[in-house]
Amino acid sequence: EDDIQVTRDQLADYLNHSSWKVRRDSYILLQSIIVEESNGEQPSGTILGDAILPGLDAKIAGFLMDKNATAVEEALQLALLYADYCRGGQSSALAETIVNNLIKGSGFTSPRPKASKIAQELVIKLMEVGNDTESLY
After folding, report:
1. Range 108-128 burial, b when 16+ CB lie within 10 A, else e
2. Measured distance CA(22)–CA(91) in Å, rounded
3. Which of 36, 57, 64, 82 is the most core-located residue (most Cβ within 10 A)?
4. Each residue of 90-135: pLDDT tens digit?
5. Considering the entire predicted model, what is its pTM?
6. Which phi and psi angles does 47 have, rounded to 5°?
7. Residues near 31 by beta carbon (within 8 Å), at least 6 away in sequence
């Protein structure tokens, strides 16, 4: 079962798969798609998340609640790319949800040092989100 090849066609289903390896591979594929969609450009927050995967804007924060340390590390990396490249990453409401899920989930407490580092980078990135100072309080 863990030998499933994650493809873009079944990506939506595999993001909720019972196997952490399949979920991890799904997060990695989404990362690749975002990078591909960026066409090598610098992050500008212009890619439509829902064009990459229908419902991505609504799902991105939930990926950070993954219970597996290896999978959550890739979910964090995905969220960081999303915040940099996708239009939804500019939403202060979504930034708040992502930070709440980081606190509730295992992003900061992961036994994997890389995951904690990515979680910190993500929070710093999200602190910059929003044109209003309201998002800082």
Report:
1. eebeeeebbebbeebbebbee
2. 29
3. 82
4. 898 999 999 999 989 888 888 888 998 999 999 988 887 754 444 4
5. 0.89
6. -75, 135
7. 74, 77, 78, 81
